[in-house]
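Q: How would the structure tokens look for this protein?
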Amino acid sequence: MAQIITYQNALKLIDEKEMQLNCLETPSIANAFEMIEFLQFILKTLKATVVKTGFDSPIQEIEFFKTIKPKILGRLIFYNKIYRFESNCPNDTQASQKYYLKKIQDLHTEYKKHLYNNDFFKYYKTSRTDRDHEYFTLGKVNILSGINSFAFEIDLQFSTYYDYKVARIIAHDLLSDFLNLKTSFSLQEHTISLTWSESQNALIELIYALYLSRSINDGKLELRKISGVFQQIFDINLLDIHHAFHRMKYRAKSKTMYLDKLKESLEEYMSKESQN
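A: Here is the predicted structure in token form.
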């Protein structure tokens, strides 16, 4: 890849790659494999930089091992799981639903066993920082602190052990979203098929309006999750919603054409009803 990969731009490059492959919600086997190769390349390049030049400050080192590397490694774990899941998934609709439900149960069991009651999990999820220097700087692994035996296999030049634990948490969350989307709003034979009759831009406009108005789950549901649900409901593939929304901001007339149409339709109906 021509562009130089740095601590600062690594995550941006990954986001751009995901948008290019359109694999933010339900990646295909081919896209998952391409992301695996891309993420491995990013990690290999960053490792060479870390080993050669190190960090400018402890703050930069903590940010790298607490935020940057876990997000990359977490995605790598996620796409590797997706590749295996999709490769082994049955083609039959009912069988595939049972398959994904079993994967959700397995993931929930893993969560309760390895994450939920774990002290470090609580530390990370509550956004604490008081032990960051211990958890996220090189050379701090204490073999007497009861750490997992996996710590003896990590590369001490490129891991603090706890960056891997954060990556596992991130991968778990991504997998949970993926599997829930796979099993939610599945179009069974007895289910009414819903077709979106407006343009893709109209649906994107609606999705952003619901997200920004915090109308769903008190605003706690991420945009990509809301988008994924609507794509499942209407069996539609929305291409690059972020760029589409960006273009809407520069419309010559109204920036909210579809929402204006909804308002006009509702007001017109109310006016007719009031006259009857």
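The chain has two domains: 10-183, 189-276.

The two ends are 67 Å apart (CA to CA).

Upvote if useful.
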